[in-house]
TrEMBL record:
Residues 99-139 form the RING-type domain. It is found in: Cytoplasm; Early endosome; Nucleus; Recycling endosome. This is RING finger protein 11. Essential component of a ubiquitin-editing protein complex, comprising also TNFAIP3, ITCH and TAX1BP1, that ensures the transient nature of inflammatory signaling pathways. Promotes the association of TNFAIP3 to RIPK1 after TNF stimulation. TNFAIP3 deubiquitinates 'Lys-63' polyubiquitin chains on RIPK1 and catalyzes the formation of 'Lys-48'-polyubiquitin chains. This leads to RIPK1 proteasomal degradation and consequently termination of the TNF- or LPS-mediated activation of NF-kappa-B. GO terms for molecular function: ubiquitin protein ligase activity; zinc ion binding. Residues 1-53 are annotated as: Disordered. It comes from the Eukaryota. Interacts (when phosphorylated) with 14-3-3. Interacts with the E3 ubiquitin-ligases NEDD4, ITCH, SMURF2 and WWP1. Also interacts with the E2 ubiquitin-conjugating enzymes UBE2D1 and UBE2N, but neither with CDC34, nor with UBE2L3. Interacts with ZNF350, EPS15 and STAMBP. After TNF stimulation, interacts with TAX1BP1, TNFAIP3 and RIPK1; these interactions are transient and they are lost after 1 hour of stimulation with TNF. Interacts with GGA1. Residues 41-51 have a biased composition (Low complexity). Gene3D superfamilies: Zinc/RING finger domain, C3HC4 (zinc finger) (3.30.40.10). It comes from Microcaecilia unicolor. PROSITE patterns: ZF_RING_2.
Length: 154
């Protein structure tokens, strides 16, 4: 049974001293042309919005009018009812089983959003869709007209 540790040689010691002296002199003006890396700063992604269905721009590039319109749209979306997908106890209830935006089957417990036309979608799918187009992807019913009329009747 051999010992895996080896005694340091004079070459190892001189390399160790070199690297320690390099680190010690770093920042005193005697270092090479390289600067220390900047401290890690987390980059926060700039949100992307769709002022019209065919346009995509960063939030920092939107006009004030577009920002107001997008804020209003976000407010309307947040007023749409949301829930959790539950196909029923025995599973035989006739319900929509697929989100027509992502084409994935609904799974028990999926967060969903219900539009005024009674169509349901995955929450993330429909929220992203509604930021681009304020119509139901299934029946093309304008979502904002139905929402605004429900406010007028209350």
């Amino acid at each position: 049974m051999g010992n895996c540790l080896k005694s340091p040689t004079s070459d190892d010691i001189s390399l160790l001293h070199e690297s320690q002296s390099d680190r010690a002199s770093y920042g005193d003006g005697n270092e090479p042309d390289q600067e220390p890396p900047p401290p890690y700063q987390e980059q926060v992604p700039v949100p992307v919005y769709h002022p019209t269905p065919s346009q995509t721009r960063l939030a920092t590039q939107l006009t004030e009018e577009e920002q107001i319109r997008i804020a209003q749209r976000i407010g309307l979306i947040q007023h749409l009812p949301k829930g959790v997908y539950d196909p029923g106890r025995d599973g035989s209830e006739k319900k929509i089983r697929e989100c027509v935006i992502c084409m994935m089957d609904f799974v028990y417990g999926d967060p969903i959003r219900l539009l005024p036309c009674m169509h349901i979608y995955h929450l993330d799918c429909i929220d992203d869709w509604l930021m681009r187009s304020f119509t139901c992807p299934s029946c093309m019913e304008p979502v904002d007209a139905a929402l605004l009329s429900s406010y007028e009747t209350n």
